[in-house]
Amino acid sequence: MKSINKTTAILMILTLFSGSAFAQDKITVKGSDTMIILAQKWAELYMKNNKTSIIQVTGGGSGVGITALINGTTDIANASRQMKQAEIEKLKARYNTLGVEIRCAKDGVTIFLNEANKVNELTLKQLSDIYTGKIRNWKELGGNDAEIRLYGRENSSGTYVFFHDEVVKADYSSDVQSLPGTAAVVNAVKKDVNGIGYGGAAYSVGVKQALVKKDANSKAYTPTAESIAKNDYPITRYLYMYLRNRPTGETKKYIDWILGPEGQSIVTEVGYFPVK
Amino acid sequence: MKITVKLKPLSMKKLFSFLIISVTGLCGFSQIAMVDSLKDVISNHEGKLNALDDRVLVNEADLSKLNKIKISGYIQSQWDYYSKDLVKTNEPTNTFYIRRARLKFTYEPADGVKFVLQPDFSTGNLTLKDAYAVVNVPFLKDWTLWAGQFNRPDYEVEYSSSQREVLERSRFIRAIYPGEREIGAKMEYIGSIIPLKFQLMVMNGDFTGTTAKDVDSKKDIMTRLVYSVKMPSAGLGIDFGVNGYFGGNRAKTNQYVLESNGVLDSTNVGDYLKKQWYGAEIQIFADVLGGLALKGEYVAGTNSTPSTISATSTMAQKMASPNTVMNFSGYYVYLIKNIGSKNQFVAKYDYYDPNTKLSGDAAGANVYYKTLTLAWQYYLNDNIRISVNYEMPQNEKSASVKNIAGTGDTQLKDNTLGIRIQAKF
Fold first, then answer.
1. CA-to-CA distance for B159 and B180, rounded, in angstroms?
2. Which among A2-11, B28-37, B53-62, B104-113 has the top mean pLDDT?
3. Residue contacts between A and B (CB atoms, under 8 Å)
4. Quick one: which of B112, B146, B105 has its CA closest to B128?
5. Number of C-beta neighbours around residue B385 at 10 A
6. Rg of the Cα trace of chain A?
7. Quick one: which of A266, B179, B279, B425 has the fewest CB in 10 Å?
8. pLDDT digits (tens, 9 = 90+) for A211-224
């Protein structure tokens, strides 16, 4: 009887462990829309080479991803901004960890202008004034006498938060049209001669990238591999992956692959910049 | 008579030409009519679209206002089973009840401005828990100003009961911060670069949940400073800090004061009775096969309780219900271990001695309590949490405890098993 009980116990433990091992094969990734093309490409290539792995990628915005991480509905949260202290507190309260932050790529928040726009260069101060509504006409920036039309992201977006905290540093103008995703911002600017938008560098197709400088006396840069690597581009940021606990098993393998040469080459291929 | 009309080939051509011109003309005419009609339709639709656009703009404006209002809340439905000394004559051994039923309304009209209103609808107990405004202090990055009714700045007080791992706060926290909230103003700094949190609160100092205004002119001050250390490579985070309370109560109706040494002294009505204590806290979070936390706080100092006896009472009655000013100490330690993503085991030990100068029979009713609590949390999903909590208080042996128990035992049998289902949204 005793041996039966022991066998049953061992079988139960093995079942539990094997269950968790199987569960680890499926990794859910949620969050940043800026990172979605990158995350999908990573998942696609990883699954191609690791047939037993299932990586499910969805967007929604950095805020949505982090909330899902706190609620336990995703394994990895992609974020184009750092976790806020309030979010870390929620993670502490629910899981008793501070979360794990992984810098997986670099990005330059790009200022999108219509190709017909005469304006080429903007300072951080001018960008702040544009997005707070202090500067309302392209004429004030050396462009045409036309009203500036502002395009931006929804407040669940990490790019929205990052751009607010690092560039705008005040309330966004109520005239900003919030669009769901950087692709939509680029598309709007492409069609609107007087439009301006911001977003991840990888989406910059069919629009003009404004040269950005810290102040009137600084040199202006566009987000290039060199200007990002040297942190010369004034709106450089990291792209992050967040986990509740230190990664183990399949999740660790996947993250190691992302940070390795193959994963980082995809970063460049997609239009972002490698971390190292 | 037979009439024959013979059409010449040329006439046939003319006829065809006439027909073609007529048809084309008609087509042209009908095309013009169609274009006009289409123009009308487009113009009609354009008008409708413009009207829709206006309506969408109005709705968007309304929605953006609604987006600024957040409603959250939670309901805690509980069943308690009491050990026998807690069950006085004719009182039940167990009960179902609603521990908390709260709705929290948060309105953020602009960045850096927040209004919060939180009533509690527990059965027969409609109370206002929070009512405050928070604004970012202009030109002082990372500083906020709070005004209204809100939690006192203490770790266990500020830690929401919807998140707390055991059903109730520590005994000493409940004693020195009754109702958790206070009415006043607070300056708070949460460093975005330096991992430092500083809180300074000025408050009435006599809030029990119903006192709408201060009963004396002096204000109490509470301050707390917490520093955070992160060691990501070790999966470790440590928050540690200190806090202090500086205030008093006015002896309103009674000149008699019972102090820690058990001697009844007299003072003047209107004098201030000291309330002053210092505390230290630490919270350690470690990523060890899932989350593990060790949290503790120690507080010691002088607490006072004003007598509520009528000013017209006899001297003997006043002496029997004096004001109290006593040295006290208390601490708690939590050990919390997450098991997988849905389960959590908790062991908590807390201690409260309301009078540190006297012990045993001499302490009278002010005996110390050591309470061990074991709890298990199960998170069914994002919204539902089931808690099983067993609280085992042990009191200091004293003659007065015999009277409380009514059994002659000096150790009260007052363990409580609590099972709670919490629905949060």
1. 10
2. B104-113
3. 59
4. B105
5. 22
6. 22
7. B425
8. 999 998 999 999 99
Cα distances from A264 to residues A33, A205, A257, in angstroms, run 19, 21, 9
Confidence of residue B124 (pLDDT cuts 50, 70, 90): confident
CB within 8 Å: B290 and A72: no
Residue B415 has pLDDT above 50, yes or no: yes
Facing residues of B120 across strands?
A: B102, B127
At residue A8, the 3 state secondary structure works out as: helix
Contact A171 B230 (CB under 8 A): no
pLDDT at B60: 66
Q: Is B417 exposed, middle or buried (0-12, 13-18, 19+ CB in 10 A)?
A: middle
Is residue B336 less than 8 Å (CB to CB) from chain A?
yes
3-state SS assignment for residue B308: coil
Whether the CB of B230 is below 8 Å from some CB of chain A: the reply is yes
Measuring CA to CA, how many Å separate A24 from each of A21, A53, A273, B33, B235? 5, 9, 29, 69, 21
In whole angstroms, give the CA distance from residue B319 to residue B315.
6
Residues 371-390 of B with CB under 8 A from A: 379, 382
Q: Which of B237, B287, B342 sits opposite A245 (nearest CB)?
A: B287
Residue A5 has pLDDT above 50, yes or no: yes
Contact residues for A31 (Cβ-Cβ < 8 A; gap 6+): A59, A60, A61, A62, A64, A65, A66, A68, A74, A76, A77, A78, A79, A158
Question: What percentage of chain A reaches a pLDDT higher than 90?
Answer: 75
What's the confidence (pLDDT) of residue A14? 46
* A84 contacts chain B (CB < 8 A): no
Q: Is the pLDDT of residue A39 over 90?
A: yes
Q: Which of B369, B370, B244 is nearest to B302 (CA)?
A: B244
Question: Structure tokens of A75?
Answer: 């394994």
| Torsion, CA A225, CA A226, CA A228, CA A234, rounded to 10 | -130
Residues from chain B that touch A95, judged by Cβ atoms under 8 A, are 290-291, 338, 341
Q: Average model confidence (pLDDT) for chain A?
A: 89
The whole-number pLDDT of residue A181 equals 87
Other CB atoms closer than 10 Å to residue A222's CB: what's the count?
19
Residue A130: how many other CB atoms lie within 10 Å: 23
Closest CA to A52 of A22, A17, A20: A22
How many angstroms separate the CA atoms of A131 and A112, rounded? 13
Place of tokens 């009308």: B40
Tell me how far apart the alpha carbons of residues A84 and A66 are, in angstroms, rounded to a whole number. 10
Sequence-separated (6 or more) residues with CB below 8 Å from residue B262: B357, B358, B362, B364
pLDDT at A1: 44
pTM, entire model: 0.81
- With contact defined as beta carbons under 8 Å apart, do A108 and A228 qualify? yes
- Strands (DSSP E) found in B60-180: 69-82, 94-110, 113-122, 125-136, 143-151
Q: Calculate the alpha carbon distances from B395 to B262, B285, B410, B413, B416 in Å.
A: 19, 31, 8, 9, 14
Type and span of the H or E element at B4: none
Q: CB count, 10 Å around CB of B203? A: 23
Give me the domains of chain A, ranges plus CATH numbers.
108-236 (3.40.190.10)
Kindly tell me the burial class for residue A89, based on how many C-beta atoms sit within 10 Å of its own C-beta (0-12, 13-18, 19 or more).
middle
Does A244 reach chain B within 8 Å, measured CB to CB? yes
Q: pLDDT tens digit string along B272-296?
A: 999 999 999 999 999 998 899 999 9
Residue A90: alpha-carbon gap to chain centroid: 21
Which residues does chain A have within 8 Å of residue B159's beta carbon, measured at their own beta carbons? Answer: 93
Contact call for residues B136 and B109 (beta carbons, < 8 A): no
Q: Which of residues 266-295 of B touch A (CB under 8 A)?
A: 283, 285-287, 290-293
pLDDT higher than threshold 70 for residue B3: no
